Amino acid sequence: xxxxxHKEASLxxxxxxxxxxxxxxxxxxxxxxxxxxxxxxxxxGVVGESGCGKSVLSLSIMQLLPKGNGEIRSGEITxxxxxxxxxxxxxxxxxxxxxxxxIFQEPMTSLNPVFTIGYQxxxxxxxxxxxxxxxxxxxxxxxxxxxxxxxxxxxxxxxPHQLSGGMRQRVMIAMAIACQxxxxxxxxxxxxxxxxxQAQILELLKTIQEVNDMSIILITHDxxxxxxxxDEVLVMYAGRIIERxxxxxxxxxxxxxxxxxxxxxxxxxxxEAGMLSSIEGMVPSLKNMPETGCRFALRCPKVKPECSxxxxxxxxxxxxxxxxxxxxxxxxxxxxxxx
Amino acid sequence: xxxxxxxxxxxxxxxxxxxxPWALARRKFLRNKLAMASLLFLIIVAILSFLxxxxxxxxxxxxxxxxxxxxxxxxxxxxxxxxxxxxxTRLLYGGRISLIVGISCTLLVILMGTVIGAMAGYFGGIIDxxxxxxxxxxxxxxFTVFVIVLNAVFFGKLNGLLVLILVISFxxxxxxxxxxxxxxxxxxxNEYIMAAISIGCSPFKVIVKHLLPNVLSTIIVQGTILFxxxxxxxxxxxxxxxxxxxxxxxxxxxxxxxxxxxxxxxxPWIWIPPxxxxxxxxxxxxxxxxxxKDALNPRSRR
Lengths: 339, 302
Prior knowledge:
The structure holds two protein chains of two kinds.
Chain A: H1 3-7, E1 12-23, E2 26-38, E3 43-47, H2 54-62, E4 70-79, E5 82-83, H3 89-95, E6 100-103, H4 117-128, H5 133-146, H6 152-155, H7 165-177, E7 183-187, H8 195-212, E8 215-219, H9 223-229, E9 232-237, E10 240-246, H10 247-252, H11 257-264, E11 315-318, E12 321-323
Parallel strand pairs in A: 3-8, 3-9, 6-7, 7-8
Antiparallel strand pairs in A: 1-2, 1-4, 4-5, 9-10, 10-12, 11-12
Helix pairs in contact in A: 4-5, 4-7, 5-7, 7-8
Chain B: H1 2-13, H2 21-31, H3 33-50, H4 52-55, H5 87-123, H6 125-139, H7 143-154, H8 160-187, H9 191-198, H10 203-240, H11 251-255, H12 261-266, H13 268-296
Helix pairs in contact in B: 2-13, 3-5, 3-13, 5-6, 5-8, 5-10, 5-13, 6-8, 7-8, 8-10, 9-10, 10-13
């Protein structure tokens, strides 16, 4: 995106967010001291393996954490000057779907099987607008058209089971953009779709983003998607942001060993066929998370003895490129981005 | 070329309106012969019962000493009972009471059970614990003893039938609440529930509009089973003399005359009609329930 965009005030600001789940009475941070901000019109990608806290992060922003065991323990989520984690449920309901909306991973289960497509689309409109039934129907047809569905007049009266996965994801997108939100959180929107449909959906998201000038948080574990879509990338590992940069420099100059390995794991067309490279081991579970030191130390090929003793901070190493790894701490004068 | 034209004509023949899950279930149910026959039987029973004043001119309460314990004849189709009252007339009026008690208890029980179960299941946490402990508490009441005591307490002060309906309902909603709660617990994990919250639906809206329609099939099937149970409960209590007040005929009341060995052995026309009425009604309700269960289960294909 242009530099102009980056100078505006941020739309969403997350500061020191800690989201924890209670297991056997004790709390474990699934998202640990995460800070970032999103400017209007920006597409921010969040990548990481499964279990890195990407989805928990998005649920925290939407205040959709499972009641009872998931909880925001500290930190601030500020959206347009309003602190979302201080709002009551009723106040949050006014924001959800109107200012911030969300697309889910599984289009097959994200639509209610007992209602028609049109009914579910109109529900968003009725929730947030004063609109007559006839107008709502017209608007829902227009919305379906805008997400590239070819026979919207018929589709409004159909049920979810009559639609393919790609179509359902389009309907989900139509629902999400119905009230022209300022921020769209897309939680792995293409993971459940096949490759050709994936490209179409991404294309659609990008078009809608340009037309409506909204910001998108795109959660994915597909680096190809990131390269295609995003202005800025957050790499998450075990609940922490370990690298933050614009999409281009992340691909040309990955800094954190984890990012390097992630990029190395992408199969390449021009290489000899052989074993796919992968990262040894797994993300430690919440209960087994090392308390001090770098959380990637156990799997890191460049590990040093002090890695497990010193907790690295996310520091800006180059203009617009921050990384949290002790390999880079001495390379520059300390410029702590976050505690 | 030939092939494409055939396909196009086929496309045109397709029904335009898309079938809702309910329409599919209805079609499946209509094809189930046993369930349809049972439904027809129930409708006939209901019509006969509710049109009783027009079908017979006999007085249900008047004791007629001259016509005690008459065998079936042209004048009294099913004979008369020990007080000289026409059995056929009492059977029709009795059906009325049985059906009214059955339907109103079922509706009340379903209403209470659904509200409490849905709230407990959706909100979870402390609300769930409190509502479910209350449910356990109600379920531990000894049913028969409770009904007998309450009936004795309110006897003569309130409309006996109303007391009976309220007491039965209040003691029976527990199991429905548990079933609804467990269904809601499973259903609320679905992504479309989170999607509904994410478009700004209030908890009330999520429960009523998104969760309940998805558990409605269970509630309906549960309702038919309850309906049958409630008729049995009413008959049982009336047979024991603790149900419907004695002056109102009900199938259970009528059966209680079979207490006497003389009636049981040599005057079968007095107790066989209500016994058969209860049996066949319960059977028919269960067949209808079974049919509904099949029709509403997306996995059963017929």
